[in-house]
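Appendix B, Record 12. Input sequence as logged:
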Amino acid sequence: MKRVESQQKNIITTIRVKVIPDAKKEFVEEGKVGHLLVSVRAPRKEGKANERVRELAAKHFGVPVENVRIVRGKDQSSKTLEIRTVSFV
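Logged structural output:
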């Protein structure tokens, strides 16, 4: 039997996000390349909308919530997210 070795490679993607908090309907919509529109029911208070944005982005990209990080705009409706994915080479 032949032994196959693989290496793990972390890939970080930066995405610009426009957030609509306190919305009636939640969704994630892709805009131009590298941009998302995220609508959340959660309010802005106490970081609830930010946490929901992370959850929806994680689901959209198929990664754990821990792999989604807000790097800019925590107190604004325009945010920059980093999405970390793992690839095996």
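The chain has one domain: 8-88.
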